[in-house]
Automatic annotation (TrEMBL):
Organism: Streptomyces abyssalis
Protein name as it appears in the record: ABC transporter substrate-binding protein
Coiled-coil segments on the chain, per record: none
CDD domains, alphabetized: PBP2_ProX_like (cd13606)
GO cellular component, one term: ATP-binding cassette (ABC) transporter complex
Signal sequence bounds: 1-27
Key words, A-Z: Signal
Pfam families, per the entry: OpuAC
Domain of life: Bacteria
Cross-referenced Gene3D superfamilies: Osmoprotection protein (prox), domain 2 (3.40.190.120), Periplasmic binding protein-like II (3.40.190.10)
GO molecular function annotation: transmembrane transporter activity
Amino acid sequence: MSSIPAPRRRTVLSGLLAAAAVPAVTACSGGITSLKGGGSGGSGAADSGAGLVIGTANFTENQILGHLYAEALRGSGVKATVKPSLGSREVVVPALEGGDIDLLPEYQGNLLLHFDKKAKETEAGELQNALAAELPASLEALPYAAAEDKDVFAVTRETAEKHGLKSYADLRKTDGELVFGGPAEDKTRVVGLVGFRERYDVTFKEFKALDASGPLVKGALKKGDVDIANLFSTDADIRENDWVVLSDPLHMVPAQHVVPVVRSAVADAPVRKALARLGTALTTSELSKLNRMVDVDREDPDDVAAEWAAEHGLTEN
């Protein structure tokens, strides 16, 4: 899922949850996805009565979000199960289109770029409208949450001071000298090497395929095996390690509010209501706290989600 400093609480503005246009209720045409078994073939009943399968990507925050979705849905009387850590967007989105899963926690800007690599929208409302136009007819982006988590690219304090780095534009001073670490998908993503090259005219000495804001890339940054790392703005380790998040003056990274993406066939009133309640309660600050509880305090994502949902009244019908 631009660069912002350490996460901070965001005010939940009146009317923040922008309404997306509702596509026609059209089922996916089955087909082969990256997942095996358990799929509905995209032709399930046009309500959530049979229960929803929530898929998540393979990083901490998305797993937490998947369990939060499940807790909120169950609190509204909707059966829900979670399939965590299925893979990257390149895996989970086709699985959603194919009906192997019904619901996915996503991030506005990066999801739009997945469908339209030339998308120019950067503001949350514009992104929501663009998603409504770009998503397949069988999928719908429900109103987005108050919480936002952007991809950021960070360096150690030592590297920042050595090269005078404050923004992505400053990386031109070190063009071809630094080693870049992130998930394999960063090699071909606009929010990754492609964007650095096209937007900032910056290249790197080497690209190391690791993970996104995970133990591999963070360990490599600590040890000096990479000089710049793809992290997430809500990652508690940024502050813990005094890493420097570089600014994004040319807006390479668009807004990244958390947005539920669901198969239209199961997006009935109870589902919409449950996820809207969650989206209003979940702020950037709260999401950062949940990440810390899992990544730093080593608690389980499902336990953390269940406790938070109960505390915020989301488990009550």
